[in-house]
Amino acid sequence: MIIAVIPARGGSKRIPGKNIRPFAGKPIIAWSIEAARDSGLFDRVIVSTDDEKIAEVAREWGAEAPFVRPAALSDDMTGTMPVVLHAAEWMAEHDRPADYVCCIYATAPFVTSEALRRGFETIKKSGAAFALAVTSFSFPVQRAFSITPQGQLAPMDAEAIEKRSQDLEEAWHDAGQFFWALPPALADGLRGALRDAVPVRLPRHEVQDIDTEEDWQRAEAMFRAQRL
């Protein structure tokens, strides 16, 4: 069995109602649900939430919300891996164990069914325990600066600061869209899972993290320009 888990906690502080706020004409979580359903990969698409309104919206757009997420996994300090692990364990107890689990973020409107399918093929063919959607940094991270307490610039890597960009290794970061995992890897946490992980590369123009109001406005403008 293959399941999708969409974590969607209530009570977002920086962007109130973030997980079901309208984005380009739909609740933002609907884009993740539709990508999962359109991929044709999943036996069940599960939304893990502690909020009945989010559960209601999720069901309206074709996902399941078969349980209420425990309070111990619903504060803003809880990471994603324990939430996905809980959902996988719930499914094993109430249906049957999953062979693969895909976590899709609720605020990832750029996620596509094609990328999800590519991620599945990546983890399946690689034999790895974990596959993470990533994108490249637009500027060499080795040439970053910090700002000292005195207000001065300081290179974070003094040796790299004078090197040409093309001579520096390309760096990648979490795209904030999805990851695939074998269920046992979830218990190891993110650090443990990354010991046996492969990348699912996404282009930068299809990635926008949404943590602030400015992020939201930028993402919606990018989305409308590309998709609508």
Task: Characterize this entry briefly.
With 228 residues, the chain is of the alpha/beta class.
Write the layout of secondary structure elements.
Layout: E1 2-7, E2 22-23, E3 26-27, H1 28-39, E4 44-48, H2 52-60, H3 80-94, E5 100-104, H4 113-126, E6 130-136, E7 145-147, E8 153-155, E9 172-181, H5 183-186, H6 189-193, E10 197-201, H7 213-227
Parallel strand pairs: 1-4, 1-5, 6-10
Antiparallel strand pairs: 2-3, 5-9, 6-9, 7-8
Describe the structure in your own words.
The chain is α/β, with parallel strands linked by helices and 228 residues long. It has 7 helices and 10 strands. The strands form 3 sheets. A 6-stranded mixed sheet has the order 4-1-5-9-6-10, with helices on both faces. The chain has a two-stranded antiparallel ribbon with strand order 2-3. A hairpin with a 2-residue loop joins β2 and β3.
**What is the H-and-E element order?**
EEEHEHHEHEEEEHHEH
What is the helix tally?
7
**Which shape, going by the Cα principal axes?**
globular
Average pLDDT score? 95
**Straight-line distance between termini:** 34 Å
What kind of sheet is the major sheet? 6 strands, mixed
Low-confidence stretches: none
Q: Strand percentage, roughly?
A: 15-25%
Helix/strand-derived category reads: alpha/beta
Strand order of the largest sheet: 4-1-5-9-6-10
Rg calc: 19 Å
Helix content: 25-40%
Q: Regarding quaternary structure, how should these chains be classified?
A: single chain
Q: How many β-strand runs? A: 10
Considering the chains and any ligands shown, give keywords for the structure.
six-stranded mixed β-sheet, globular, 7 helices, alpha/beta, two-stranded antiparallel sheet, 32% helix, 228 residues
